[in-house]
């Protein structure tokens, strides 16, 4: 396995990719979400939407205007955890910025053999595999570009994408916790 590098060291991939940036999110919650300024707003029941000044939304918009695609599949428990409900709520802003986010119940992901780790796949060439501790904190990432890792990530992407449901449709199926 290649050296563990800080996530910040791979941030250039989000602008340098040529065609697709695809993510699998498997965690029940992320420490970074708890630190987000949107977390208290979510806790108060506020609607979280598109923020044209958000650096993430700006980049997604710029990249998708060039014809590139941002896509992700998020695994969701039944019932969803608080962290997963936050991602469903905040993800709509990402969708409005230009991402295609889909969701898949964890039980279905396990049935089709998806892994329990997060990664980004860029242009079906580079895999950024996360190392996340039990508290949801990203400790770093491994950059994988060997054929075996890339082909496996492509297989995972294809299986996940085939079974996942677009965010707006999925959100309508999830019972409210209020």
UniProtKB/TrEMBL annotation:
One matching Pfam family: DUF6879
Domain of life where this protein originates: Bacteria
Domain spans labelled DUF6879: 9-171
InterPro entries given in the database record: DUF6879 (IPR049244)
Descriptive protein name: DUF6879 domain-containing protein
Species whose genome carries this gene: Streptomyces melanosporofaciens
